[in-house]
Amino acid sequence: MKFTKFAGAVALGATLVMPAFAQDTKVIGVSIPAATHGWAGGMNFHAQEAVKRLEEVYPELDFVLATASDAAKQVNDIEDMVATRNIDALVVLPFESEPLTSPVKAVSDGGAWVTVVDRGLSIEGIEDLYVAGDNAGFGKVSGEFMVSAMPEGGKIVAFRGIPTSIDNERVAGFEAAIEGSGIEVIGMEHGNWNRDDSFVVMQDFLSKHAQIDAVWASDDDMAIGILAAIEAAGRDDIQFVLGGAGMKEMIARTRDGDAMIPANVTYPPSMIATAIELTAVGLTSTAPVSGTFVIGSVLVTQDNAAEFYYADSPF
Amino acid sequence: MLTADKNKHTKNMLLDLKVMGPILALIVLVLVGAALNGNFLSAGNVSNVLSRSAFIGIIAVGMTFVITAGGLDLSVGSMAAFIAGLMILVMNGLLPSMGAGWPLVMVGLLTAIVAGTAAGFINGFLITTMRIDAFIVTLGTMGIYRSLVTWLADGGTLSLDFGMRAIIRPIYFDGILGISWPIIVFALVAVIGELVMRRAAFGRHVAAVGSNDQVARYSSVNVNKVRMMTYIFLGVLVGIATIMYVPRLGSASSSTGVLWELEAIAAVIIGGTMLKGGFGRVWGTIIGVLILSLIGNILNLTDGVSPYLNGAVQGVIIILAVILQRDKKAEG
User: The domain spanning residue A111 has which CATH number?
Assistant: First the structure.
């Protein structure tokens, strides 16, 4: 993890828990997308856990958590939070950047603290704190692992998520990392971060290509569909499948030495907890927490997999 | 006499094109696929495409009856996800007491059928007895089942116990004489559906109700009962489709079965069934399902089209298939 503007803010904040006598209650609104896929499910879990814990730690803070199934619903949620709860701070993981930019700007203009998570807004400078995942780094770490695992090069197929800027950044990072390494991408399709879609696409890749050396699944949900298709086809030319995001079942298989899943690349859904914690610190203490906090993507191998296994998380 | 003959001739031509439209589209797709990739007609690819068509196919046969009776069901995709989740939870829950084995698989299958029947009954009850519009009822149940499966899975994924997965897996991947079970079940459902629609009194009642429910009522057809039966029939088929689906990956989540309802409805309409009801064609629905599956398969097997445009290609082919069989009378 990388600190840009406020080294040690978390550690400092933790020691600065103030006694709650005679203070006004402050309200933090948390607006996140609903649990529509595995990663979002994990993110919802960590958001709820963080809120539960922080409500005990800071009696002077109140939390409002809303999950939205689409961007329009998220805009409504945020407007309701301002109108009915008069929030002092907003932690938002935007469903999409464009439609959420002006509603979040309105909250910021109204004087509330704004923390943006994962997906940036379209206009810079609205948020006080930006807790970001490193999508280009995610692709780069994945690509570098591919290069190191296949020193002689080889033929791979790659899976992409839902067409978004996140997906584009990851693929660009990956392609830059494998450039000139002798690794050839012979097929690239959208598996939409979905097991069933990836199963079908992988079946078709297997029909189309007689020799595939490895697969960049780029996501653990997609990796599960891909592995099922490979197993059903009985093909043994594929040496390994590289997933991503650190689903606990896949981390467990890496930890236990499964040769098909030698590694994983993190993109932790718990970054929402980082954002809520820092916002709480900012509201209750004098520690500065404004700026950008980039959560790096880390390569997980058998050696360090045990550190990335979260038994309680649904993801 | 001359004009009468001419009219009859034109009518036959139209009828032919109406019947042949979807078949022609399917043949063109098969030829295009074979020309673009040598593996397209390989046994492996054909088996893959037919097996993966089975989920939507089985549901679409039921949807043909619902639409023919003048109804609609938007809840089938969510219903399938919910039943899949329920099936997994029941099997995981009973695993310690029953042990891994075929008796437990049977309990799982029974769960799916019972849940499907119940879900179909609820839709049917609200639509017929409570007299609420089918679109609204099933839009409501669509949201309810989708939320329920998300809730059951705690926002994540429900996974079948690993030992059970090995036992249940053959339901999707094995079969008789190299033909996998999903294909066999899909074929059986299609043949029975076609026979019921064409030969049984029930099939004629469904068309009568969809064509004009007042006239059907005066002809002593129990309209509500016929409508109710179409929804229950569809619910049971969603249960059967789920039985085929769960063994494939052994998991269910909130992304299971997303948009299946629209694919099933599209297949029914491509097949020549009228969206406003009164006329249904089960074999046409089967052709429609195969057309939809083949488009995705061909796009994956070729490099020519940007993956961003897959949806556009699908849309164009769906519209073309329906244009081929449009009714001249509709143009006024």
Answer: 3.40.50.2300
pLDDT digits (tens, 9 = 90+) for B270-303: 998 988 899 999 999 999 999 999 988 888 888 7
N- to C-terminal Cα distance for chain A? Answer: 21
Tokens of B286: 């089967």
Q: A169 and A277: one domain?
A: no
Q: Which residues of A67-88 are buried (b: 16+ CB within 10 A; e: fewer)?
A: bbbebebbbebbeebbeeeebb
pLDDT at A15 over 50: no
Contact A224 B249 (CB under 8 A): yes
A182 and A283 assigned to the same domain:
no
Is residue A272 a part of any domain in this protein?
A: yes
State which residues of chain B have pLDDT below 70.
1-18, 325-332
Q: How far is CA B271 from the centre of its chain?
A: 12
ipTM above 0.85, yes or no: no
Note whether A30 and A124 are same-domain residues.
yes
CB B233 within 8 A of CB B121: no
Task: Give pLDDT, residue B195.
Answer: 96
Q: Which residues of B touch A190 (CB under 8 A)?
A: 307, 310
Q: Domain tally for chain A?
A: 2
**Per-residue confidence (pLDDT) for residue B3, from 0 to 100:** 47
Same domain, A79 and A110: yes
Relative to beta strand A129-133, strand A89-92 is: unpaired
**Chain A contact for B314 (CB, 8 A cutoff):** no
List all residues of chain B from 38 to 67 with a beta carbon under 8 Å from chain A.
39-40, 42, 44-45, 48, 52
The answer on A240 and A261 residing in a single domain is: yes
A20 assigned to some structural domain: yes
Between positions 28 and 67 of A, the ones with CB within 8 A of B are 34-38, 40-42, 44-45
- List the single residue in A with minimal CA-CA distance to B305: A189
From chain B, the residues in CB contact with A249 under 8 A are 159
Residues A130, A275, single domain; the answer is yes
Give the chain A residue nearest B248 (alpha carbons).
A228
Among A192, A208, A222, the residue to mutate for chain B (most B Cβ within 10 A): A208
Please check whether residues A154 and A258 belong to one and the same domain.
yes
Residue A41's pLDDT band, with cuts at 50, 70 and 90, is confident
The whole domain housing A70 covers: 2-134+268-296
CA–CA distance, A88 with B120 (Å, rounded to integer): 47
For chain B, list the domains and their CATH numbers.
42-326 (1.10.3470)
Q: Is the pLDDT of residue A7 over 80?
A: no
In a domain, A126, yes or no: yes
**A-B C-beta contacts closer than 8 Å:** 88
pTM of the model: 0.79
Q: Domain check: are A45 and A56 in the same one? A: yes
pLDDT tens track for B171-216: 998 888 889 999 999 999 999 999 999 999 999 999 999 999 899 9
Query: Per-residue DSSP letters for B122-141?
Result: HHHHHHHTS---HHHHHHHH
